[in-house]
Amino acid sequence: MNMEILEWIRLLAGGALLLSGLIIFLIELYGVFHMKYVLNRMHAAAMGDTLGISFSLVGLMILSGINFTTLKMMLIVIFLWFASPVSSHLLARLEVMTNENLENHCRNYSDLAVLEKELKEEKEEEKTGGEEV
Amino acid sequence: MATLEMIYEKMYIAVLVILAVMLFVCLIRAVRGPRVADRIVAVNMMGTMVIVMIAVLSLLLEEGFLVDICLIYAMVSFLAVVVISKVYMGVYAERYQRYHRNENKENGEGVHEHGNP
Question: Across the interface, do B64 and A52 touch by the CB < 8 Å criterion?
Answer without folding.
Answer: no
